Amino acid sequence: MAFFLCPALSWSMTQGGARESMLQPSQQQIRRLQATAEARQNELFALLERLVAFPTVSPPARNTEEAQRYVESLLAACGFETSLWDVYPGDPNVTAVKRGADSAHYCSLLLNGHIDVAEVGDSSGWSRDPFKLSLEDGRAYGRGVSDMKGGLAALLFALQLLHEQGIPLRGDLLFQSVIGEEAGEAGTRACMERGCEADFAVVADTSSLSIQGQGGVITGWITIQSPETFHDGMRAKLIHAGGGVRGASAIEKMMKLISGLQELERHWAVTKSYPGFPAGSNTINPAVIEGGRHAAFIADRCALWITVHFYPDEDFEAVTREIEDHLLRVADGDPWLRQHPPAFRWGGRSMLEERGEIFPSLALDREAAGLRQLVRSHQTLTGVEPEIGMSPTVTDAGWIARAGIPTVIYGPGDLRHAHAVNESASMSELIQYAQVMIAFIAEWCNTPKESGRIPLGAQERTGSF
Ligand SMILES: [Zn+2]
Questions:
Q1: Distance from Cα 395 to the centre of ligand 1, integer Å
Q2: Model-level pTM greater than 0.85?
Q3: What confidence tens digit (pLDDT) does each residue in 59-95 have?
């Protein structure tokens, strides 16, 4: 797609020509830019078509480099300093920053989205090519249009229009195009570990233009390991009176821990809750079990892979501590487990490489200045307040919130269509999203820091992004 160089809009001088107001885009200018977005929607769909054509499916992953280089080139053309760096070979992140004219005093914004898409598998159920965008009856079809190349394309389109129209931004604007979200890989986590600070963040993942927080997910491995290995023929001596051999089947001992987990899950269901979640959403799923060597042995090892869901006001470190405390008490009640307690390995940076993942939770601060501004930008365009609630799924937003940045999930596309055969998104919703974000970026990045709620340390700029 082409970039158009249009003459910059002229800036109104209210209040006797003060420099401050010269730089502040007026509502009229924002409305004009939103109208331009609608008039030039073909460019948004051309951009989306390019993104959909990169088959960035995960798994198998390691296939996003070309797509990320394309995203990087678009950001560079919008005046961003960009950086493309490998998380895994073939799967780089793109991080970028457009420095504000007065970033010490004006609010900064982080925009985040993932470039990977859910696997397609057998595409015979698709009535269209999943990697060729088709537009029909007001809907865009293609893998990732809902989750979340539609969101990425709309953000990039908004940035292009803001740039070409010369809308000044006084605060910094940061962008992360990350890999690995679909396979629980640490794309966004790696960005935050490199150092990233902002006064507010929007993750453009699938939310049907609702503003959302989320519960968290962590996986873990619980392993019982016997120091000795016994032949199957020894079983009688291990379990019967007078046998005299002290040993155990790791599989049978794991049964005790599984029932311990069920008790804890029931206790959580009764004692914990969070608005926006059905009671008992905080489950502990014994998802995979691996144990034993061979029918001729007593099982000397058993490992259980669990998936734990927790609420937005809980952190994964506290949740896993609770599970460990509980299971160690269960183990304490068993003479053999007391001597051979279970080992725990929590989370991981990739379901593909480590069979482990973490999605931290995200509680919403409804009073956060950024959230209130986003509500206004949405309402001004659409005429209605956006729904504010909780996502029934998880996104990378928790990693950004955990780094101390007030964060929301706000993106186009419907979860019913995400990951689905014939994935689709409403074309008008994609355009609306670009329009809302044009207003939000222009307004938030021109908001003085003292009127935003500034997280501690946010002003100590590290220069990294
Ligand atoms: Zn997603």
A1: 6
A2: yes
A3: 999 999 999 999 999 999 999 999 999 999 999 999 9
